[in-house]
Amino acid sequence: MTYCLGIRLNAGMVFLSDSRTNAGMDQVGTFRKMIIYEKPGDRFMVMLSAGNLSVSQSIRELLQVQSLKDGHGDQPLTIWNAVSMFDVARVLGATVRSVNNDDGDALQKAGIEFNPALILGGQIRGEAMRMFLVYSAGNFIEATRETCYLQIGESKYGKPVLDRLIAPTVPLDTAAKCALVSMDSTLQANLSVGLPLDLLVYREGLLQSNQIVCIDEDNPYFQMVHKTWGRRLKEVFDTMEDPCWEGGTAGHPIRTASSRYEPMRKISNPTEKIV
Length: 275
What we know:
By secondary structure, this protein is an alpha+beta fold. The chain has a single domain, classed as Glutamine Phosphoribosylpyrophosphate, subunit 1, domain 1 (4-Layer Sandwich). The protein contains five helices and 14 strands. The strands form four sheets. It has a five-stranded antiparallel β-sheet, with helices on one face. The chain is globular, with a radius of gyration of 24 Å. The relative contact order is 0.17.
């Protein structure tokens, strides 16, 4: 499995992916799940992938040459001449469907699900930043101000911290820290997600990024995040009151006078005859 995360903010975008793939408990591999498509000064795009590795690798390579007929003028539409990230997402969707048409039947006969999920984000000169989540059917949704982050893979473990802390106005470095905490929570809970990680921070309007890092188990910042987050969680937990069942002087009683929440009970009658 995998865990990949894309965050779209007012100031830019943050991308984070793990690199573990496995086909069984004794067959674990490491493959990069982040790829950058870049034309300096014109466009900067990042794709994160989850799902069957052979499928996602085919998609990422074919995306560079995939075209749609409804381009501009006589030129077919590609990721290199598209004037909007929406059109780039359309080309990616067409690439997913093309791979499914070529390999889907054979994969199904082999008992392998066609299950890619992709996050595509970036910026084209003259357009605002945009980020999309592309499904296995080639359709997609876009990140919005209300939902400014997208996840693929093992998303549930790292979602709570994102829901509490991520908003469009959050600074990029704060979002990068939050993304690493989200990943650390996932690493703690699921063995199918693993190091090394790829982290990229993109600042709005630059059409390039030099804030890219591969994080392994010896990375000092990630080790600090891992140790500090676990310790502070325990400290906060220990400061909360234990439940007080008797009420009394408890500042936050767990049980209050109310008939609304009484449990349903079946009281046994010892004099009742069993037929």
